[in-house]
Amino acid sequence: MIRKSMVGILLAATLVFAVAGISCASEFARIGTSTVGGGFYLIGNTIAQLGNSVKNGINYTAVTGGSAKNLVALEKKDMEFGLSQSATTYEAWNGIGSFEGRPLKQIRFVTAIYPMPAHILVNGDDIKSIADLKGKRVDYGSIGQGIETNCRIILGAYGIKDEDIKIDRYGRSEVVEALQTGAVQGHVWLTTYPNAQVEDMLTKNVRLLPIDPEQRAMILEQNPFFIPSVIPAGTYKGYDQDIPTIAAVGALFTYADMKEDVVYKTVKMMYENVQFLKDRLPNYFAEFSIENALNGCIMDIHPGALRYYKEVGLLK
After folding, report:
1. How far apart are CA 118 and CA 115, in angstroms?
2. What is residue 274's predicted lDDT score, i.e. its pLDDT?
3. Using CA of residue 28, residue 32, residue 38, residue 39, what is the dihedral sign?
4. Residue pLDDT, tens place only, 243-278
5. Domains in the chain and their CATH numbers?
6. Are the beta carbons of 225 and 135 closer than 8 angstroms?
7. Average pLDDT in the 135-160 region?
8. How many Å apart are CA 79 and CA 32, to the nearest integer?
9. What is the pTM of this model?
């Protein structure tokens, strides 16, 4: 009789722990990044590392992707968070450019991460200006990357259309060698500075070009999601003058009916652990702060993020 009672107690206890385990199970959140080697890849993995170290009840996993690919995945709810840059996001939200006729109205803004100055990289002594890329091989990045949008806008300011160039598509890591060897003559890389891969390329036949004043003003006027930017003199060896350019804003997004509590906890986790992010990726998180949280926001803010921004007094 006693043995049966003990068995019953043990079974009951096991059931309690099992139920408790289910109730305490983590939420799962995938973060869409970029191809391996890109800035978003590093950022997404760092956010995931932070999340899994603070143990806020959410299990984060970084997955490869790209700006456009991440936004499409969010619209379909194939991931919980995704990184994208403001030019691609503007097109997706408004159903223009690469998203012509198919606006993605389910995506929601979470937080800005960092400004992304455009590095115009070229290989060829005859290329003195961006205008000289006409007739050349230009890398538009892998399908689903935001590079394609940026290239079209910048080249378009010089009257260069897709049919005026030979379009190549390399992944982020492959384009470095392609530029160095001259397999492609042009590439637009929106990234923070100084970028180690850019530094390496500039020692091997690759050069940086500025965006000319007239074209720069045109781009900024026609594309409000870009901001004026300068790569400061001395950032890269051999460049002793400021390089005028433009910058997009890299930001984190989700979808409209993503669980409010998951988004709230994620934003709270990031802003309460800013130093963790800065220590691991100082270049990318140098300007990450609550004051800059809404930079580049051109759409509705997710209620979970909104809740946190009101809590800390950023919004009323």
Report:
1. 10
2. 97
3. negative
4. 999 999 999 999 999 999 999 999 999 999 999 999
5. 27-114+249-311 (3.40.190.10), 117-248 (3.40.190.10)
6. no
7. 90
8. 7
9. 0.77
E strands within 123-265? Answer: 137-139, 166-168, 186-190, 207-209, 227-231, 243-255
Please tell me the distance from the alpha carbon of residue 268 to that of residue 306, in angstroms, as a whole number.
11
Strand boundaries in the chain, DSSP class E: 27-32, 58-63, 81-85, 107-122, 137-139, 166-168, 186-190, 207-209, 227-231, 243-255
Residue 7 has pLDDT above 90, yes or no: no
**Rounded distance, CA 18 to CA 21, Å?**
5
Calculate the alpha carbon distances from 148 to 87, 233, 276, 285 in Å. 10, 27, 32, 25
If you average pLDDT over residues 214-226, what whole number do you get?
92
Of the candidates 149, 141, 62, 31, the residue with the CA atom closest to the CA atom of residue 99 = 149
Distance CA(27)–CA(259), nearest Å, equals: 10
pLDDT at 102 (0 to 100): 93
What pLDDT does residue 285 have?
A: 96
The per-residue b/e assignment along 116-146, b for 16 or more CB within 10 angstroms, e otherwise, is bbbbbbbbbeebeebebbeebbbbbbbebbb
Write b or e for each residue in 29-46: b if 16 or more Cβ atoms lie within 10 A of its Cβ, otherwise e: bbbbbbbeebbbbbbbbb
- Where is 181: in which H helix or E strand? helix 172-181
